[in-house]
TrEMBL record:
<dbReference type="GO" id="GO:0005829">
    <property type="term" value="C:cytosol"/>
</dbReference>
<feature type="compositionally biased region" description="Acidic residues">
    <location>
        <begin position="296"/>
        <end position="308"/>
    </location>
</feature>
<dbReference type="GO" id="GO:0009898">
    <property type="term" value="C:cytoplasmic side of plasma membrane"/>
</dbReference>
<protein>
    <submittedName>
        <fullName>Cobalamin biosynthesis protein CobQ</fullName>
    </submittedName>
</protein>
<keyword id="KW-0067">ATP-binding</keyword>
<dbReference type="GO" id="GO:0051782">
    <property type="term" value="P:negative regulation of cell division"/>
</dbReference>
<dbReference type="GO" id="GO:0016887">
    <property type="term" value="F:ATP hydrolysis activity"/>
</dbReference>
<feature type="domain" description="AAA">
    <location>
        <begin position="3"/>
        <end position="159"/>
    </location>
</feature>
<feature type="region of interest" description="Disordered">
    <location>
        <begin position="291"/>
        <end position="334"/>
    </location>
</feature>
<dbReference type="InterPro" id="IPR025669">
    <property type="entry name" value="AAA_dom"/>
</dbReference>
<dbReference type="GO" id="GO:0005524">
    <property type="term" value="F:ATP binding"/>
</dbReference>
<dbReference type="InterPro" id="IPR027417">
    <property type="entry name" value="P-loop_NTPase"/>
</dbReference>
<feature type="compositionally biased region" description="Basic residues">
    <location>
        <begin position="313"/>
        <end position="323"/>
    </location>
</feature>
<dbReference type="Pfam" id="PF13614">
    <property type="entry name" value="AAA_31"/>
</dbReference>
<keyword id="KW-0547">Nucleotide-binding</keyword>
<dbReference type="InterPro" id="IPR050625">
    <property type="entry name" value="ParA/MinD_ATPase"/>
</dbReference>
Length: 334
């Protein structure tokens, strides 16, 4: 049976689509059969990464509406790598979620891995896209806003007993002004599991822009992603030290890239310090709520009332035990 992995984030524009396509290619290169599913209804972009924007005849919206069979909407990118496009006409408000879940789960039986490129945030679209996922990777870029939004989504998962998530850092530098260092991210966000640390790589971004990501060379980005692919296969957690060594520095950047790198003046440094303080305060508040030492804020209107009775994160349980409980809960929901 296929392992379904949802690639999500709290904030948009952090590289979910690039990570989804790249991870699918990395798993395919390791001999696995992979189905890449675009679940960003109305705003699909995964087809651009594969260079198949002109080849999409049917999408998952057509399958749900009964205009075609599921197999007719699946396109072959390369050997053992297939792609299912999201609807460009309909948003999630017009998509029947149970039918979507049934189609993806049925198709997934023929693959080793199914990767879902999810919409950002934690609204209904996110919940519908990740409902059938066995694991969730939250993509975080080196900005305080991305970190804070990711922390909010992680808190959202903990509250609903979904502990099957990992953090995947993307587009990171080492010692470049204007970007949050990965060490600060690890210390403040404090994730239990890290699926990988992906460096900024102009070659990969160029390949994605040109739609030839399938033929990307073994750049530092792809080397770092190989550890994530091994982790997905059930291997050991990625080595933080070796991944940090792959991060680009100002000294290692080319002449053109150096000109594009920001140089923070005193005013910008003070502004970044304020943003860091606000992000840290937000995370401390969220941690206090999860630990039961602070009052929980009132439920927001967009969240389901049925979730109010969901128990909080169990205390004193190992990560493996919590993931087993989460898997049992998902099978019960199915």
């Amino acid at each position: 049976m296929s392992t379904i992995i949802a690639i999500a984030s709290g904030k948009g524009g952090v590289g979910k689509t690039l990570v989804t396509a790249s991870l699918a290619i990395a798993l395919q290169r390791r001999g696995h059969s992979v189905l890449a599913v675009d679940a960003d209804m109305g705003l699909r972009n995964l087809d651009l990464m594969f260079g198949m924007q002109d080849d999409v005849l049917y999408d998952i919206g057509d399958v749900i509406k009964g205009r075609c069979r599921a197999g007719e909407a699946v396109m072959t990118v390369a050997g053992k790598l297939d792609f299912l496009a999201a609807s460009q006409k309909h948003t999630w408000e017009k998509i029947d979620a149970p039918t979507y879940h049934y189609i993806v789960e049925t198709l997934s039986k023929d693959y080793d891995y199914t990767l879902i490129d999810c919409p950002p945030g934690r609204g209904r679209a996110y919940k519908d896209a990740t409902a059938i996922a066995d694991r969730i990777f939250f993509v975080v870029e080196p900005t305080w806003s991305s970190m804070r939004d990711a922390a909010r989504v992680m808190q959202f998962c903990n509250k609903r007993k979904r502990f099957n998530y990992d953090v995947l850092f993307n587009n990171f530098y080492s010692g470049v002004p204007g970007y949050v260092p990965v060490q600060d991210m690890l210390q403040i966000l404090n994730p239990e599991t890290v699926a990988g640390i992906l460096p900024h790589d102009p070659a990969v971004h160029l390949a994605a822009h040109e739609g030839c990501l399938l033929h990307a060379a073994e750049t530092p980005f792809m080397k770092a992603l190989a550890q994530t692919a091994a982790y997905v296969e059930g291997g050991a957690a990625p080595d933080i030290g070796s991944l940090t060594a792959l991060l680009p520095t100002v000294e290692g950047a080319g002449a053109e890239e150096k000109e594009s790198l920001p140089v923070a003046d005193e005013e910008e440094k003070e502004s970044l310090g304020c943003m860091k303080a606000l992000a840290v305060a937000e995370l401390q508040k969220a941690a206090a709520i999860l630990n039961g030492t602070a009052a929980e804020p009132e439920e927001e209107p967009e969240e389901d009332a049925a979730d109010e009775d969901m128990p909080r994160r169990p205390k004193g349980l190992s990560l493996r035990r919590r993931r087993d409980q989460s898997a049992a809960w998902r099978h019960y929901r199915r």
